[in-house]
Amino acid sequence: MADLLHYREDGPHEEPAVTLDAFLDQSNATAVRLESDEDARALLPYLDRLTLIEISFPTFKDGRGYSAARILREAGYIGELRAQGDVLVDQIPLMRRCGFDSFHPQAEVDRKALAAALERQEYVYQRAADARQPVWKLRHG
Q1: Distant-in-sequence, close-in-space partners of 112: CB < 8 Å, separation ≥ 6
Q2: Helix, strand, coil % in the chain, rounded to nearest 5
Q3: CA distance 111 to 66
Q4: CATH of 8-140, one of 1.20.1260, 3.40.50, 1.10.3470, 2.50.20
Q5: What gap in Å lies between CA 18 and CA 99, rounded to an integer?
Q6: What's the rounded Cα separation, in Å, for the pair 58 and 87?
Q7: pLDDT, tens digit, 9 for 90 and up, residues 45-83
Q8: pTM surpassing 0.85?
């Protein structure tokens, strides 16, 4: 679980993510940051060279980042997909279903609460970007 969370005080970090505009202006960066109002589809031609896409959540009520994550994963992006900003512990399990595999919350996350949230739902009801099998598939093959 510790590898899911990233805080600035954790130590040295990978290459900083550049803005989408900087990336599209012929940057050779391998990490890009999408703001909540930017279209993830602009990155589709470059997915093979990106190692990190950081998606901004300016407020916990802004769900556009979920859609961006799903678009990127369905298009075949296999690199790190990080949710950054106003990320709440109870949203992390849902964000993982959409394809996020790391998180940089602006506020400290209680690790016990996160572990409990990740284990709370034993079964899921639909397919998503993660590898979990829906309960109907487990029942009926």
Answers
A1: none
A2: 40, 20, 45
A3: 22
A4: 3.40.50
A5: 21
A6: 9
A7: 999 999 999 999 998 889 999 999 999 999 999 999 999
A8: no
